[in-house]
Amino acid sequence: MQILADLFTVEEKIGDIKGKRVAFVGDCASNMARSYLEAAPIFGFELRLAGPDGYWPQPSEMRGAHIDTDVGTAVSGADVVATDVWVSMGRKQKRRSGCGPSRVQRRRDLMASAKPEAIVLHCLPAHRGEEISANVLEGARSAVWDEAENRLHVQKALLEKLILRK
What we know:
Blueprint: H1 2-14, E1 21-25, H2 31-43, E2 46-50, E3 66-68, H3 71-75, E4 80-83, H4 92-98, E5 119-122, H5 134-137, H6 144-163
Parallel strand pairs: 1-2, 1-4, 2-3, 4-5
């Protein structure tokens, strides 16, 4: 559901996802990163994953995505910068210990390397100052609140499709 909401938000904010560059920053073995890996070849966008060593999907899951441990390189020229919470259920210490270098906008210049019209996505809940800084989450380039609203619309549309399916 979340990846559908993300794609809907991209379409709404900057147009067709096809041909766009998406940088996912954080735990690249997470469910959100894996959802982006599944969606990239279907919807025709370039995916760059950025995170620390040890937080990567299996090679068989990569589907042509670019991997980088340097967040700045991965975000360079991106149309969309997406991240997710690092603290997952039952893995709190592991997530917190590895998230430092991959925080979105922990370095002030990080979003400057993305395209000027680039948007920032986060599926919420966000931990300000951990995986994303408050100034990016609340900033002009953030589409996070629209993304959250769009998740509701996507869920309603899918339920309607499933219930009314004949």
